[in-house]
Response regulator
Amino acid sequence: MNDHRSVSIVMIEDDEGHARLIEKNIRRAGILNDIMHFTDGTTALDYLFNHKDGPALNGPALVLLDLNLPDMSGTDILAKIKAEGALKRTPVVVLTTTDDKVEIQRCYDLGCNVYITKPVNYESFAQAIRQLGLFLSVIQVPDIESD
């Protein structure tokens, strides 16, 4: 075994049906990474930033983010992820029903890597996830101490 840390996938999606579909598509794309599913932003942010197994303390993750959550806006979560040092480079895929051009641009301005409109077109979703998977497989996880 090498000590290369596997990238965990953090899915923040309040709709169970969409969550199951997204997970099925990820598996169909041949990606077997662990998926942590959260149905609200508060719990997800706590995991991302504070949990001992979370990405801020324990290394690389890919975030799948719905914008319409029961307790807060997905754009607020995106802004928090991209503002924080430990998570700043974390790839974020926005998956949402909103195809408003202003909202899409705002997400890219905040630092999202891919914006996908639901219902998810399987091929474009699989392609985006594969590209990010490729990106994640070659990414070097920096030491937190290094300058």
User: Anything to note?
Assistant: The helical segments are 16-28, 41-50, 55-58, 74-83, 101-110, 122-138. The beta strands are 8-12, 35-38, 61-65, 92-96, 114-117.
